[in-house]
Design goal:
Helices cover 32% and strands 17% of the residues. The protein has 443 residues and is an alpha/beta fold. 48% of the residues are buried.
């Protein structure tokens, strides 16, 4: 065999090996951040230089949505690729603060019977590390090989315990895990869901000083600083990956669990009210500041950077990860592979629901249903329901007795002009779509 043939054979073998190499997967989740609150989304004050850089090298889907505007059900939908009505996790608790450990056990048991992208990857040779928000017991319960959350009630377990230290108290657990994965020569999954910019809004003074100024409410300044603090930790994480030479073949997916608006953000809006430390039409609501999030998909080896207005959804994360890693997603998942441009173009509508915050009825997800919604093209329909709720949180939705709301998001992205009375034909057409997606009976 001549030298040229040997060289070409070796080159081909190297190419085949590289093509067969599975990508690492990093899922970055913000916690309580509005869809507008990033540099790359045009915010005029908040600085997010690291996420801006990620956006530049990503497929950036500006019109991303979550399945629920509340962290626990939202994260459960990302993990399983299913809506809350399917996986059964509709709220943060079963009966508020009462007897959480016992009442939550059957909810977690039912949830862990479902496939997740974590269990799919670890069953196929991946190492997987959990840090940050995690509601479903310990990291081992979720199928991770490594992690921080113990799920032990003695550690104050509810939504992450030790895992909530990530970002706020450094990134060493992730650095150590990356070193371990490199030493083992195995592909890895990172679940990075820090308790940021979530309350308590206690940013470093060096950041708060940047945002505190005359005429800006103190709660707004603190929140803005928290957004930049979160961005800094994302930069540390991504730098850790690049320094180890892993950036080219690492799939990074970014999304926020649900939106947020500080109580003073919309103080001049007569239609706006505040609730429990945040603006009413944000977290826990079906308005855009509750359910919308930019979604980024970055994979330098395979994905060409682009900025798209195609509709994207949290339920797409599981099928996207499965497609990128060459693994088979479970049958019947309602989401799409976001890397498939044809699938994105063929989608015309996305859906979601809002339930009570601090109560859920195991085995009966619709019992606490507050809203169903859909977005079809430029139009958004919200349908009001009045499921059971805890006394403390009834005021969260009781102010809104309007059964139907319609908005044109292209002309009115901040939902100031309600149009259901002017377009009854469109309301009926979209209602039929929502009913076909998830029919319910009023109680």
């Amino acid at each position: 065999m001549n030298p040229l043939t040997i060289f070409l054979s070796l080159l081909l073998s190297t190419f085949v090996l590289q093509a067969a190499e599975k990508p690492n997967v990093v899922v970055i989740l913000s916690d309580d951040q509005a869809w507008t609150d990033y540099g790359f989304m045009g915010h005029d004050a908040i600085r997010t230089p690291n996420l801006d850089k990620l956006a530049q090298r990503s497929l950036l889907l500006e019109r991303g949505y979550v399945a629920s505007p509340l962290c626990r059900p939202s994260l459960a939908s990302m993990l399983t690729g299913r809506y809350p009505s399917e996986h059964g996790v509709t709220g943060n608790d079963v009966d508020g603060k009462n007897n959480r450990t016992v009442l939550d056990a059957p909810v977690k048991a039912a949830f862990h019977k479902l496939p997740s992208f974590v269990k799919l990857l670890t069953a196929n040779g991946y190492l997987a590390h959990q840090s940050g928000k995690w509601w479903e017991g310990s990291f081992q319960d979720g199928g991770f090989t490594h992690g921080m959350t113990t799920g032990n009630p003695e550690n104050g377990a509810r939504h992450g315990d030790e895992g909530l230290n990530i970002g706020r108290k450094g990134m060493k657990p992730i650095s150590d895990f990356l070193d371990h994965a490199v030493a083992e020569k195995k592909p890895f999954l990172l679940w990075y869901a820090p308790f940021l910019p979530h309350t308590p809004h206690n940013p470093p003074q060096r950041l708060l000083r940047k945002y505190a100024r005359p005429g800006r409410a103190a709660d707004v300044a603190k929140y803005y600083a928290m957004c930049e603090w979160f961005d800094e930790t994302c930069g540390t994480l991504l730098d850790n990956i690049q320094r180890r030479g892993l950036g080219e073949n690492t799939l990074v997916i970014y999304i926020c669990d649900n939106g947020w608006a500080a109580t003073s953000t919309n103080a001049a809006d007569p239609n706006q009210k505040n609730f429990n430390g945040y603006a009413l039409r944000s977290k826990s609501s079906p308005f855009e500041n509750g359910i919308r999030s930019p979604i980024m998909v970055s994979w330098p080896a395979r994905i060409k950077p682009d900025r798209s207005k195609d509709l994207a959804h949290a339920i797409d994360i599981f099928p996207t990860i499965a497609a990128a890693t060459g693994l088979k997603a479970p049958d019947g998942l309602p989401g799409i592979n976001l890397m498939d441009e044809t699938a994105r173009k063929n989608r015309d509508t996305v859906f979601g629901a809002t339930h009570s915050v601090h109560n859920m009825t195991p085995g009966d997800p619709d019992d606490t249903l507050q809203y169903r919604w859909c977005i079809s093209g430029d139009w958004k329909l919200m349908l009001r329901h009045k499921g059971t709720d805890t006394t403390e949180y009834k005021s969260l939705h009781d102010w809104d007795n309007q059964p139907t709301r319609l908005y044109n998001l292209k002309d009115d992205p901040h939902e100031k002009n309600e149009l259901s009375g002017t377009r009854p034909d469109l309301v009926e057409a979209l209602r039929k779509k929502v009913d076909a997606w998830h029919p319910v009976k009023e109680r």
